[in-house]
Each structure stands twice: as structure tokens, then as C-alpha cells.
């Protein structure tokens, strides 16, 4: 087996379990009279064959190893087959979330200077209309109707060589560029993360070992890029009928139905999706006995959401909330059993959110809080035991740089001999038992008088109130302001009473004593990828306008 190209694992699995279901996608308008969704299915053998045909077609059509190709392809067979075909042939896929907005999209595309563009017709119209990559894009491939922009159609290149010949796989070295994945950019312009084949390989092994995935499992990935690891793990993927860019708007029945239909064993979902499905499940007494493992990431999941979703699971099933980012994942692991039995009370009393212990192969350290670049690593950078500082990580799954963003790389990376440490931009500390606790983003800390306040630590003191959905701490002209989003669906909440209670709680706790002002907000702005990270920068601007 090729040591570093993870597509090798797909071809291995195709030999070991050729007829096992690899991926299933819902057909359009596919719910029958009994409420069962009809799916289009592809086996591991078929997936490997389609991948090999696509790889040969791409190379025959002028794409070549090392080409950077922007992918604007919705979740579906084409998304998976193209992704694997590019890895197989050494072509570098570039992924940018359309939700980042037209202005940011153009900046990111022009920055990465892609050689090619693969997308649906609508994406090509936008590319031409807005001048995306007009100085660099030379190779064009269209999924669906092709209009005036030229290039080839996907269906044409798929049929160029449909033979059953042995697949030739790009023999990747660990430092070879595998993909450019852009961050959400929830705090500014998205950054292109430089992913090597070594990073992907390490991630695959860490996911397998950390969560105990084994061939034959059935997964529901509600964020499609995460599903690209599944075929290499020998795990079947059932893609739900939902808009993956709007997990908070999911129809719970479109998640619960397939879980029961296929006997799904694992599910990945953002905290916003868990919140929506958990509320529905609790109200309707839904049970999902086949699920043995749920993984949630993108932001800290609320205790309330974990409790609600857990009502649908068997007592031995667990919701894992691993910690990580686009630049480095996974880093730590913790499960709902530990959260609900051991750490929940501490979280509600201002200790932060427990994110568990570091996973095997990843080194996590806490350094003193500083905003400037740190060129080289020194043990003197470390914070005192138990002190809140910035979380810094090192390991084979940790990316080394941003693509063509030197200033951002300097701020986020620390050279440590031949290795690089990544500064997460998050604050936290390690307790005496070796668990790490997340206290909030470094950029979200609020200074009030002589006291520095950390968002997540403070907010969870108030989030336990039954009438509170979530809170957000922001700073306005040196004053700490608490923004409150009330529980949805409860129209009988007495705002003045709630305000008095929460301000009384604030006054009683040393961490939140500076909070004297509370503002109710109808619905917090959140990131477009997971609909879970609160965009406190926008809230701060809103609060400032409200107060003036």
C-alpha cells in the first residue's frame, strides 16, 4: 500500500469488501407514501472503478499532477468521485465555502490562483460574471448543462477510459500538497490551509484509533467533506436529505428516518443540528438504538443539547465532542458520559468547557497570552499550571502553514526545531487530572477595569438558566455587556424578571461581577459552516448601536 496517499486505502477496501455499500444519496423527491426515502447507492467496488475512470479522464483532458483545481460541486457522487480521483492523480482540490460571500470568494480564489475550475453550471455563471480566477484558470469542467464558457463536460471525461485496468496511484510523499481547505473566516477573510498528504494520512489513522471505527460501520456525515475519510476506513456513508450549509435548518425527520432505515451506527453533526434534532426527538419520544456513537464539532455543544439528544440513545451510546480546527484536527476527545456526570457542574460555575485529554500522537501545551508573533518555541513560553493561556498543538495531523498568507502563518505558527506548533487562537488551561478546558477565543476576551474576562467561562454561568437559549459576552468601550438569546418557543418569559435574575447571578460570581448591562437579542449571528459559532464581533457592533 502507498504509505501516504489515503486513496490507496479505498482501493484496498474495494478488494476486501467489494459489494458492501460505500455511499448512498437520497434521490430527488424521493420520499414514498410510507415516508421512506429512496436512495441511489454505490458499492466499494463501483466507487473504486468510478474513481479510477475519473482520474484517467482528468489526466487525459489536460489536468496534471500538481494542478490546483477549485471545486464547486454540491454533495453527491460527483463530489466524492472527483475528490478521490484528484488524490489518486496528484491533482490538488481547493475547497472554499460559498457561504463566505461573493467579495471574500473572489479574494480567496484570486489569492490561490487555481489552474482549473470544476463546478455546476450555476457556479460557472458566477465565475464568469464575477471574474473569479480569470488570470489563472485555464482548465474547465462542467457538471450539468454547459453554456458559453467552453471546456469539457464531466460525463464526457468519465467515459474516456472505462476499462478495468489496475489503478495507478500518485506516490505521495508526506510533505506533498494534497489539498487547500479554506477556514470559515468567521473572524475575517478565510485562510487557505495547506494540507499535505502526510496530514491526511495522520488524520485518517487518528480518527480510526481515537473513535474505534471499523469496516462495516454505517455513518451519517451531515458535513460532506468529513465523509471523504469514510471509504478509506471501510465505513458506509449515508448522506441525508438536507442543505449541509444550513444544519440549524435541518428537518429532523430527514435525519431520524435514514438512521432507522439503514441502522446507522455513527453520526457527525454540528451542535446546531444536535439541538434541532434533539428537541424533536425529546418531544416525540424518538429512540435511535442503532447509534453507538455521535460526534459533534464546530463549536462547544450546550449541555442542554447533549441531554436532549442523549434521550434518544441507548445508555452505553455516547456523544463525543472532540476539539480541533481546520488547521489541526482532532486534538482532544471527551464524551457526553464524562461531561454530564463529572464536568457539567464545573462548566456552569465558570470553569470553562472541558474538552478532555489530548489524543495519541498530539502534544498540547498552554502558553502565556500574547497577541504578537512567536518565531521560535521555548519552554519559557508555557503558562503556569492551571493558568489560562493560549492552546498550542503539535503533531503529524497539524498543518504547517497557510497558502500564500505569510503574515497569518507567522502569527499562527511557532517553529520548534524541524517541527511546527500551531497556535489555536483559543484560550484554555489544563487541570490536575490532565484534562484541558476551553475558555473562549483569544480575540473575544473582554477587559473591564482591571479584570480580563473570557467568553465561554462567563457565558456558561448564565446558559444554565431554563429561560436562556444562549448568551454572549462582548465588550463595548471598556464595558462588559451580556447579550442574551432566550429559549425559543416560550412566549411567556418575563423579560424584566429574567434580566434581574441574570444580573443578580453576574454580581454574585467573581468572574462576571463587572457585568452591569444586559441586552436581549432575537437570534445571534452564527458562522455559515456549522451555524454554531457565535460571531461576537457582529454582536459587539449591534450592542454599541443599541447603547448609543
From TrEMBL:
It comes from Shivajiella indica. InterPro entries: AMP-binding_CS, AMP-dep_synth/lig_dom, ANL_N_sf, ATP-dep_AMP-bd_enzyme. One of its GO terms (molecular function) is ligase activity. Residues 11-403 form the AMP-dependent synthetase/ligase domain. The keyword ATP-binding does not apply. PROSITE patterns: AMP_BINDING. This is Fatty acid CoA ligase family protein. Keywords: Ligase. Pfam families: AMP-binding. SUPFAM superfamilies: Acetyl-CoA synthetase-like.
